[in-house]
């Protein structure tokens, strides 16, 4: 994928019409085995922070461990003169949303717990470093004038850590707050999207997706909505 994008970029440089000129954005989907300088170390970190009793963590580990799994560990966004360095790659952290008391109008307690473990921190740093590597490799380096974010002042591990801690974002891909594992495994909805322990209540949105997969999630949300429509229509037909 990266090779294909570099080729498109190179064609543009030579004056040929290419997809790179006409697409607002291109995406690369990578496994850590390709993108990380120390992918084995990353996997060790993932194993050390994942909770083996948690079914979601086990699934995340299995996707991370399998280089042939088609679930990307890292999504690279190529825009016009830009490779995003601020995203959050496939993670082990889970945050939470809880009620704060008996008053239904009270604000909920929300803590996304971003970069709250060693794997998420290292993975996010590796992603940002990999993007610099791309930007400083041919043919991007001949095409692009300079790196403005974070800029070449950022060199040491500590500086990369400070950069990702201050700048990381979810790209609006929030999910997992009403995830779909079994109730015993901490799930909120069953495979029919019904909330455990409540009658006649379904959740149909991104929150039922249990795992962030380093990819845009809107198509999955459409899929969930279509599946919900099928389930509900079947019930009342
Ligand atoms: C700026 C931006 C850019 C994005 N770009 C992309 C992209 O390029 N590709 C991609 O795949 N994803 C993208 N996303 C993410 C994608 O839009 C979301 O993942 C997706 O819309 C989530 O769907 P949802 O149904 O879970 O929630 P939403 O789409 O947020 O739907 C929630 C709905 O509930 C309504 N609502 C809220 N509170 C109440 C209430 N109290 N009563 C009644 N209704 C209520 C809201 O008005 C809204 O219509 C982007 C998101 C943003 C914000």
TrEMBL record:
<dbReference type="GO" id="GO:0016614">
    <property type="term" value="F:oxidoreductase activity, acting on CH-OH group of donors"/>
</dbReference>
<comment type="similarity">
    <text>Belongs to the GMC oxidoreductase family.</text>
</comment>
<protein>
    <submittedName>
        <fullName>GMC oxidoreductase</fullName>
    </submittedName>
</protein>
<dbReference type="GO" id="GO:0044550">
    <property type="term" value="P:secondary metabolite biosynthetic process"/>
</dbReference>
<dbReference type="Pfam" id="PF05199">
    <property type="entry name" value="GMC_oxred_C"/>
</dbReference>
<dbReference type="InterPro" id="IPR007867">
    <property type="entry name" value="GMC_OxRtase_C"/>
</dbReference>
<dbReference type="InterPro" id="IPR036188">
    <property type="entry name" value="FAD/NAD-bd_sf"/>
</dbReference>
<dbReference type="GO" id="GO:0050660">
    <property type="term" value="F:flavin adenine dinucleotide binding"/>
</dbReference>
<dbReference type="InterPro" id="IPR012132">
    <property type="entry name" value="GMC_OxRdtase"/>
</dbReference>
<feature type="domain" description="Glucose-methanol-choline oxidoreductase C-terminal">
    <location>
        <begin position="94"/>
        <end position="225"/>
    </location>
</feature>
């Amino acid at each position: 994928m990266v090779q294909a994008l570099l080729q498109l970029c190179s064609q543009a440089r030579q004056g040929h019409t290419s997809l790179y000129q006409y697409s607002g954005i291109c995406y690369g989907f990578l496994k850590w085995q390709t993108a990380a300088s120390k992918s084995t170390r990353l996997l060790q970190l993932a194993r050390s922070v994942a909770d083996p009793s948690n079914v979601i963590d086990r699934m995340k580990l299995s996707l991370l461990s399998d280089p042939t799994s088609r679930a990307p560990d890292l999504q690279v966004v190529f825009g016009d003169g830009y490779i995003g360095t601020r995203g959050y790659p496939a993670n082990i952290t889970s945050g939470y949303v809880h009620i704060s008391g008996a008053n239904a109008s009270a604000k909920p307690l929300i803590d996304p717990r971003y970069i709250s473990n060693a794997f998420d921190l290292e993975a996010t740093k590796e992603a940002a470093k990999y993007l610099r590597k791309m930007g400083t490799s041919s043919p991007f380096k001949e095409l692009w004038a300079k790196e403005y974010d974070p800029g070449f002042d950022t060199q040491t591990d500590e500086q990369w850590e400070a950069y990702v801690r201050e700048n990381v974002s979810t790209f609006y891909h929030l999910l997992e707050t009403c995830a779909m594992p079994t109730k015993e495994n901490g799930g909120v909805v069953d495979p029919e999207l019904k909330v455990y322990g409540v009658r006649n209540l379904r959740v149909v949105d991104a929150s039922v997706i249990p795992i962030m997969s380093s990819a845009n999630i809107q198509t999955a949300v459409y899929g969930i909505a279509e599946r919900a429509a099928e389930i509900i229509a079947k019930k009342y037909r």
